[in-house]
Amino acid sequence: xxxxxxxxxxxxxxxxxxxxxxxxxxxxxxxxxxxxxxxxxxxxxxxxxxxxxxxxxxxxxxxxxxxxxxxxxx
Length: 74
Fold this sequence. Notes:
This protein is an alpha+beta fold. 42% of the residues lie in helices and 20% in strands. The protein has a two-stranded antiparallel sheet. Strand 1 (15-22) and strand 2 form a beta hairpin. The longest helix is centred in the C-terminal third of the chain and has 13 residues, at 49-61. The radius of gyration is 13 Å and the shape is globular. 1% of the residues are buried.
């Protein structure tokens, strides 16, 4: 289900990076590294059909989720 989000998201307006990773220590932990052109593009991503479908199923599939935002320095 996570992999299904990658292709459509990479085609979205404003998507600069959208990569799925698996934690080397905890194989059940997955991490998306995302970069967006703007907050508006990220907000639109959250409204996309594939992300809405994922969010609807996520409570049954995920123990928990966490979103961290960062600003690039260099």
